[in-house]
Structures are given as structure tokens and as C-alpha cells.
Amino acid sequence: MPGRSLPSTTTTLLSSASPRPTSSPPQTTAAAAAAAGLCGAGMALRRLLQGSVLPRIIGRDLAPAVAPFSTESGETIRATLFPGDGIGPEIAESVKQVFNVAGVPIEWEEHYVGTEVDPRTESFLTWESLESVRRNKVGLKGPMATPIGKGHRSLNLTLRKELGLYANVRPCNSLPGYKTRYDDVNLVTIRENTEGEYSGLEHQVVRGVVESLKIITRQASLRVAEYAFHYAKANGRERVSAIHKANIMRKTDGLFLKCCREVSEKYPEIQYEEVIIDNCCMTLVKNPGLFDVLVMPNLYGDIISDLCAGLIGGLGLTPSCNIGEGGICLAEAVHGSAPDIAGKNLANPTALMLSAVMLLRHMQFNDKADRIHNAILQTIAEGKYRTADLGGKASTSEFTNAVCDHI
């Protein structure tokens, strides 16, 4: 489903609108708001260029880093653990128990969300916790709930920006023995994680008029496209689909597509197609087997990845990891913190366990990853120890013990 040819674009909006000539007639309220918005956009972009977003993007190595871990040294590897909020500490304990049984040589550095905003991160995440991830290069994150209120950044946004987590990777595979509407889902969503509509640049122009800026850069688009094709080749995938809305957003999504096309030329063995997001959503719910690897800008990836999770049974069964600069890999559970069942031994730890499996594969502990993965699938397929969200009555500890027994 190739997209139609788009105007060649190599840059995004990097200059403000020209000032309105003094000889122009007075503008209406709407026109004045629009003009003010354009000036505001230019000022915001100048701040962006001078600030902390683009410097993290420009000039970085585009090739995905190889994990600097050895499976033969026998040394214990230090990894960062964010147990998270709500059910997070319980399911994190499940992962630690499974890793112990499987003999994974990991020592966890645990960090919790702070009680006050750290001025260095502008969020409740401490600078020390971010330094831990930078130092260890690998980490696992349970669900986090950003406290309500002003004056601080989202916890997940802080992690992505501060650690340069540019690609969110979510494999969505039908689980043997667990019946859903589809039984042939086998796809991967790769989401650009640092810019787009989530650049955090929005403001009120005048009362009743709010403006949000969508930032797409060549550097970030090339980087995530390179990762998507590299991932497809390394994992025996045959096709990469670039998801877009360039028929409407010609400049921003047009630039994203141009970068994807440029990278695709280096991978002639991988099929490349472009799919408008509307058609992508329709096709996913009709026949998800038509897709293989999907790469897309931030907002589309946020929506499509959750849609794909629904195809296989929900976020409680969906693993996720974030790939960052310098070889960082932060695996995570993407479901909520479920405070209503926290501390009741009812949570399903599958998503965090499967995310931990992705972390092990990144670290090249493939044998241990396979053992844990197969044990999880076998436990779910047998059906005896499914948690309530999967239609069973097992507790968190009962499910975890069953996985350990299969290991």
C-alpha cells in the first residue's frame, strides 16, 4: 500500500512568521489570534532550538547500539528497577522471583518515585534514578502514576526526554491457548518516542484559542526508521510499514516518510510500504495478519500500539521496551498502576514478565529469555493459574509460582 509521492522536505518549520506590516488593515479577533499563534510558534521553536530537545536528537549515532553484555563472563550485571506505583511493587517482586529461579545474574538497583519534585528533572523522578539507568544501561519499570498537579513533568515523558529513549518497541503476538478474536497476530509496533505532538510545546494564544506544536525532525525520523529496519532484518521480519497522515500533514509527516524511504533503500531485502493511519486502523481490526513491523511518529504510535494490544488480549499481556542513546534499554509494563487492587495479590504480572524477557534478549541472555518466555506461555495455555483479568481465579503469587515451576 505505497503512499503517493509527497513534496520533498528536509527541514521542519524553523523560522517564525513574518511580522504583519504596519500598513495592513486591522485584523478580526480570529485573524489576530492566528497571527499571535504564528508568532508564538516561532518563539517556541527558537526556545526549542536553544533548549533541551533538539540537542538530544542532533548528531547522535543513528545505528542501534549492540548491548555490551557477555553471557559467558559469569559476572553479575547491575540493572535499574523502578517498581512503580500501585500494583507495581507486587509484579516487580514476581519478576525478581522468576529471575532468581532461572539463574539470571542480575543485581537490581531499586529506585522509587520521589515525594517532591526534583528541580534537576522537573518531575518526581530523582536525578539519582536517571543516573542509575545511564550508568547501568539496562532497566525495568513498573507502572507509574504521575501525581496530579502543576509544576512538574509527566514521569514517562521525563524518562523519555532525559534518557533519550527514542524508540518504543512493542511486539504483539497471539498467545497459544488464550482465545481472543484473532489467533494470527504477529506484529511489532515501533514508535518514535521523543517528539511529534508530544514535544510539550503548547500554549494559549488568547482566551479560547489554544495552540499545540507538532515537531518532526530529520534526525529523529532517520533514527527511528533506521532502528525499525535494523530490527526487521535482525528478527527475520519481511516488511516495514510506515504509518502516516501525510496526505493532510504534508510537511511534518511528509518529512517522516522521506526519511523512511531514504533508510529503506539501504535494506532492499525488506519490503517497504506506506499506509495512511485511517486505513491502518481499519485493516488492523479486519486482518492484523497483513502487518509485520509498523514504524510511526509519536502520537500515532501511542494509539496504534494500544489498539494492537487489544488484538491479543490487552495491555496486561503486552510487553514493551524503550531503546535509547548509548545502548540504553528500559523495559516496562505499559498498563496502569491499578490502585484499586494494589496490595491484594490479584495483579497479573505477565506484561512485566514479558517485558523482562525483552530486556534479557537485549542483553543477549537468549537461553534464559527463552526458558522464562516458554514458562509464561505454558502457564497461560494450561489455564489452571490464570489471574482474574484472564478469566481465572489465581493470585499473583500462584501465577508466579506456576511460572517458576515450569522453568
Automatic annotation (TrEMBL):
Its cofactor is Mn(2+); Mg(2+). Keywords: Magnesium, Metal-binding, NAD, Oxidoreductase, Transit peptide. GO terms for molecular function: magnesium ion binding; NAD binding; oxidoreductase activity, acting on the CH-OH group of donors, NAD or NADP as acceptor. It comes from the Eukaryota. SMART domains: Iso_dh. Pfam families: Iso_dh. Belongs to the isocitrate and isopropylmalate dehydrogenases family. This is Isocitrate dehydrogenase [NAD] catalytic subunit 5, mitochondrial. It comes from Zea mays. The lineage of its organism: Eukaryota, Viridiplantae, Streptophyta, Embryophyta, Tracheophyta.
